[in-house]
Sequence to fold (604 residues):
Amino acid sequence: MGARRPDRRNFLKGSAAMAGGLTLGAVEPVLGQTAAPGGFIKGNEELVLYGERSRHVTSLRMAHPPNGRPSPDAYGKYFHIAAPLQDSVGTITPSSLHFVGTTRGSFIPDIDPKEHRLMIHGMVDRPLTFTVEDLKRLPSETRPHFIECAGNRSRPQYKTVQETHGMTSCAEWTGVPLSLLLKEAGVKDSAPWIVCEGEEEVKGASSIPMEKAMDDCLVAYGMNGEAVRPQNGFPLRLLVPGFEGIFNTKYLRRIKVVDRYYMTYNDYGHLNRRDDEVGAALGMLIGPKSVITFPSGGQQLPERGFYEVSGLAWSGGGAISRVEISTDGGRRWEDAAIQGTAHPMSHTRFSYQWTWDGQETELLSRSTDDTGQVQPTRAQIAEFFGERVDDESFRVRGMDNSVQPWRIASDGSVHNAIT
Amino acid sequence: MPLLRLLALFMFLGSTAVAQSPTYGVGSTPSEEEIRAWDIAISPTGEELPPGRGTSQEGELVYRRQCASCHGVDGEGAGAPRLVKRDEAQVDPWDYGRILAIRSPYATGVWDYINRGMPVNREGTLTADQVYALTAYLLYLNDVISEDDVVDDQNLAKIEMPNRNNFADLPDWKRGMQRFPGYPF
Fold:
């Protein structure tokens, strides 16, 4: 070990990148080593302790819908905030860019995790209360899951994919399976529903079928490798994979096992008229869906030639099994490549190698999930219900999972082609 | 056969007993008082309702002080949503629109919503009697009950709401099911 002492000059050269600006002034410049063109990022305590992205990366969330109604409270400005999918790569949405939906105003409770409790009671053998530390002692699971807001609906006046699809995001969630907690409390055999409630000022509550609660729901304390962010439910969020966003209860503090559908605070928003069972069903679960994020509305292709078309696919029914692309407005479809593993109820990245000939055309994607459901065009949905897609009154029922067309103009500009 | 059946019964009882005992023993037991304090989601049966009572006249007084500035003097809506149905009569009560005290299938839902979420920024400050009174006032304004009716924890769940049987059931969720039978998308 270390027979020869490293030459001081070489040592400094090797460590200059690591030490950054701190040592530069103290030694003579090494030949051939010049500062980066833009200079160096000055180190400070904040950056050392908790990093941040380059100042040249400016991707931001935005209010949803665009020009949406501001929140009545002084705390947050908007009810809903959409993720910048046009800049996304891979499948995980960074926590800082994850979409946010609120039931009423952007109140964010400032919860001390040491004081927070999760209570499970109702039709159980043993009511139980857990601290966050209690939960962290129990067997955990880590899985990627998307959450999507029911308002994630493309409209003709929306220009970018952030506006048309930004109310979905995907994070890696870590927590305790809800089934484990329910078994620990001992659910009575006949209990068909649970009511899940948050700690925020309105204590938003949703009814969830027991079959789902015992399947794959997760009481999450972790999000993308750290604690769940306050805007996403710190310290505990219930994940109900594939169900409409509002079921994924933030600030989870109470689960009551009950004998019926409770029709409580959040459930009221799901009400459909007696004769619209299909609307109720399509509003509860998210169908197979996909969208091309590059090239997408508002972007610009600089010239004809090669481009990797890239996008996201997901489904509330399971894992994505197939994604197809059309580069000619839907006449011919070809398989896109699925990148990595397609996880159940998770964003899945797809790509397709395309050479643009400079002619105006339309790009579309459609996904299929492992239950065999296929993402429809708006025309297919209209036809199924015996409606006309060009009618003013036509509206996709429930969660909108229709195909998103992007028109590439001959000047390379990209536009929302929904009419 | 009887022996086999008996054996099956023992196996069933055995497995049930195992499944119902806690595996990890983590967590603590909440007291009855702690449970009652948090048990605020009101069933259509009204079983969680706290004792209390109120009339529409009492409710009107609370409404003027605590609600009118956002919901309008006569519940016609202002910064916050409209609370009273419009004058034109509808054959189907659904068509009065999304007005809580007429759309909600259960009167307990009206009580729950006010108790849980109102007034904005002062949630949890209304007494149980005030919530009963406000519920009575909104139900009276929407012609569900009479002006002098007393609403309390015993009769609230029995009030027949116009949309009581007028909403669609959610599907029975099963892993791997299609969103709606016969719908391929």
In short: Chain A has three domains: 8-49, 117-271, 289-416. The radius of gyration of chain A is 25 Å. Chain A has nine helices and 22 strands.
